[in-house]
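Duplicate of #3305? Posting structure anyway:
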């Protein structure tokens, strides 16, 4: 345990080094090039609010997986959104004491540590601690996981892939030390917990497990024949436990309103490029920055995590060549290499691209796109599993060199492993500030009664740019003191099978219609009708942030227009304009 505790300390120090700016400002800054962070912060606050309700406090919301505090009055189906309850519930005390932004940043800092520990536990099944620790570090601080930490907490906390691989390995164990029931139970609990962190990572891990079993069928048919029934029995036990744990989420997904009516994302966009492993990621210490590889759409850096570096790839190739006939490690190396290759090919999606140009349309991922649920997996996010395979092979290659009778190999192995890690190592990332008006430090409670319905401008919108949805953070910082008409989420309406934010209301339509030109007098019929529509929906207040990003007009102009339309004065309070519609 001393070695593992020391390893965990090294991982924590590495994470603190990478996320140093976040540590310096844990309540006001986040690491993100998009604004998906606001969504996670909101759900952390929602979970804390619901738990507070169990003790007679909070806003009165009672459902962890459904809320009308966002997109009021229709509400949001949390089963189809990243509620991250598996992390939000353990973090409730932190959210209560320090706020949801601090809780979010703590989870981001913990993500590479937990992921590296899980990967090291897998690799240690085959090699001693030192090379296992190197393999775990390569996985936890890989380009993929650090990139996903830039806004995607649900995907950055990637402990499930190594745990599932470890569970499969344990279920294939023969001899007196095999414990299929125990393995099936803990594996089922891990998968069940994953339902409440990321269903997409869960679905992707299922695809990776299929690739692993196909690789075993090709490279290790005797092992499958010998332990297949044990694997099947333990797998069914794990699946049963996981489904039992995940039943509340599944019920929410398919019985509560707001479920999307079509595939969430278009196909052919979120694909890895064949050259991604050779082009440094945005956050790597050496050579970081925007990727030069052309994409079908402008993707934010959090999605581009396929880089592994030429040294790591060469080390992997040499390891496969050196050990593929080994009596002890040959089967493991062949299975791992083939499984990693298969899942990487899936991560290229359909079609395959080379430097942004399509080269083959009819790829294996076309079959995945036709499957229910699995068709929503974004292919480039499957790179987490090929990264895990590379980490296992890196550790095996290092151990092969360390135990070699040739001094040159004993020296070369650690140098090659260190270079592999150095090329993918993340530098200290830049944290951006969150725009938080002083109004939300306490003044809100004096002028907005608890439970009121508020329309906030700028309204949350589905844009992969900073500050696009910070109104959700402001609501979260109040502890869900009020309900919000806007929101950024996955859902649907009777008019649209899928939406990514609350539809524009009549006031939004007026503001957008005159974008780039002066607003008309709010007292005109169009302005009065827009405000009357808000009142009909039960809106009590309109709040306009003076320094809010992405406002369609100057905050003062919006306040004057809305005030005239409402026939009520606007108040300027601690960085916001407030109009009482009651």
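Output from current build:
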């Amino acid at each position: 345990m001393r070695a593992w505790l020391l390893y965990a300390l090294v991982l924590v120090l590495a994470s603190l080094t990478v996320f140093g700016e976040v540590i310096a400002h844990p309540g006001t800054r986040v690491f993100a090039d998009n604004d998906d962070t606001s969504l996670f912060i909101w759900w952390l606050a929602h979970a804390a609010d619901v738990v507070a309700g169990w003790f007679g406090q909070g806003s009165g919301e009672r459902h962890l997986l459904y809320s009308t505090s966002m997109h009021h009055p229709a509400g949001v189906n949390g089963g189809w959104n990243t509620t991250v309850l598996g992390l939000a519930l353990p973090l409730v005390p932190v959210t209560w004491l320090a706020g949801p932004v601090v809780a979010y940043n703590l989870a981001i800092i913990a993500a590479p540590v937990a992921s590296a520990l899980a990967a090291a536990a897998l690799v240690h099944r085959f090699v001693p601690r030192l090379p296992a620790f190197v393999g775990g570090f390569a996985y936890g601080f890989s380009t993929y996981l650090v990139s996903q930490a830039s806004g995607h907490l649900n995907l950055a906390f990637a402990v499930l892939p190594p745990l599932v691989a470890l569970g499969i390995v344990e279920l294939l164990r023969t001899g007196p030390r095999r414990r299929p029931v125990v393995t099936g139970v803990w594996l089922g609990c891990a998968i069940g917990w994953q339902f409440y962190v990321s269903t997409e990572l869960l679905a992707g891990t299922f695809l990776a497990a299929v690739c692993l079993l196909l690789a075993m069928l090709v490279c290790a048919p005797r092992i499958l024949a010998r332990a297949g029934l044990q694997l099947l029995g333990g797998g069914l036990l794990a699946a049963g436990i996981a489904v039992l744990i995940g039943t509340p989420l599944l019920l929410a997904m398919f019985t509560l309103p707001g479920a999307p009516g079509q595939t969430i994302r278009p196909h052919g966009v979120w694909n890895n490029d064949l050259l991604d492993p050779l082009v440094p990621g945005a956050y790597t210490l050496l050579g970081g920055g925007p990727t030069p590889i052309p994409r079908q759409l402008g993707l934010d850096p959090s999605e581009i995590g396929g880089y592994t570096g030429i040294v790591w790839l060469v080390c992997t190739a040499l390891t496969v060549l050196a050990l593929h006939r080994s009596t002890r490690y040959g089967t493991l190396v062949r299975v791992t290499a083939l499984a990693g290759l298969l899942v990487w090919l899936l991560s290229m999606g359909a079609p395959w691209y080379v430097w942004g140009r399509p080269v083959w349309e009819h790829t294996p991922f076309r079959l995945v796109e036709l499957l229910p649920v699995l068709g929503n997996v974004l292919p480039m996010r499957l790179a987490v599993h090929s990264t895990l395979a590379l980490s296992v092979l890196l550790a095996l290659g290092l151990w092969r060199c360390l135990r070699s009778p040739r001094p040159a190999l004993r020296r070369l192995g650690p140098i090659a492993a260190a270079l592999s890690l150095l090329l993918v190592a993340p530098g200290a990332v830049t944290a951006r500030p969150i725009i938080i008006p002083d109004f939300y430090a306490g003044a809100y409670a004096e002028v907005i009664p608890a439970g009121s319905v508020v329309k906030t401008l700028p309204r949350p919108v589905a844009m992969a740019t900073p500050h696009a949805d910070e109104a959700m953070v402001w609501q979260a910082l109040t502890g869900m003191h009020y309900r919000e008409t806007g929101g950024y989420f996955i859902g649907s309406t009777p008019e649209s099978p899928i939406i990514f934010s609350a539809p524009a209301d009549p006031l939004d339509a007026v503001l957008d219609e005159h974008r780039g030109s002066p607003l008309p007098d709010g007292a005109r019929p169009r302005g009065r009708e827009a405000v009357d529509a808000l009142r009909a929906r039960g809106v009590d207040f309109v709040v306009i942030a003076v320094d809010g990003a992405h406002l369609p007009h100057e905050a003062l102009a919006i306040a004057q227009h809305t005030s005239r339309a409402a026939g009520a004065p606007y108040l300027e309070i601690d960085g916001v304009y407030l109009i009482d519609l009651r």
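Confirmed duplicate; merging threads. The mean pLDDT is 96. The CA atoms of residues 255 and 555 lie 41 Å apart.
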